[in-house]
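Hey all, quick one. A colleague (J.T.) asked me to put the S-adenosyl-L-homocysteine job into the tracker so the inputs and the structure tokens live in one place instead of scattered across chat threads. No bug as far as I know, just bookkeeping. Sequence used:
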Amino acid sequence: MAADEVTWRAVDDYVERAVGTSDEALERALARSAEAGLPPIAVSPAQGKMLHLMARAAGARRVLEVGTLGGYSTIWLARAVAPGGRVVSLELSDEHASVARQNLADAGLSDVVDVLVGPAVDTLAGMDDDFDLVFIDADKPSNVEYVTAALRLTHPGSVIVVDNAVRGGALLDADGDASVQGVRRLHDLLAGEPRLSATTIQTVGAKGYDGFVLALVVDPSGER
Ligand code: SAH
Ligand code: DHB
Ligand code: MG
């Protein structure tokens, strides 16, 4: 079988039916986002469920997201936190945040999520919460700033996931665009940061060829 983009999408569709990576509220969130003119760049259903399962596996009660868009990934994360848990999602665009709040209300999750509007670097600077899982998925040139802030707002055992870290292989291009430089600088940070143990996983699927960074916050003195 050809390992091409058509196959990647078909496999994601198969997985969606086989193990259940969508439902009506998630479908409505994507439809409302498209209707409002938001770009179709939410995580895929399979990736959304992966984030959800990561948050549950980590026992996350407090989740931080950077980059809300229409709240698709936010719904997956909000469904993962135990009763009494919280998700804080940071979004630059008032319009995106407004669509996200509608989608979260539709999914019955308004009470679980705070969407905070503004440049995330500024919002993060005013925060002093402690999060169990951080999902970074906003402007890629600021990845280093976001992970640096995440280190201040987490504890050993917290999980940090950074989306779009491979970019069709452009990660390898030392002369790549600003987003590529952002993910390359992120890897430089990971290489020299004893408080993070990290890997980068390449992915194919409905969103093409990309990948994500998975980092665990560790106590450098007790690192395995
Ligand atoms: N996590 C979403 C997709 C996020 S797309 C999902 O998977 O469903 C990236 C989002 O980051 C966009 O909505 C964009 O407006 C937002 N963004 C871009 N620059 C930002 C900044 N400086 N601060 C906060 N959000 C930003
Ligand atoms: C883009 C952003 C994303 O977060 C993503 O998953 C895919 C594409 C973009 O800005 O093009
Ligand atoms: Mg993304």
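Adding what we noticed when we looked at it: The chain has a mean pLDDT of 97. The beta strands are 62-66, 86-91, 113-117, 131-136, 154-163, 196-203, 210-217.
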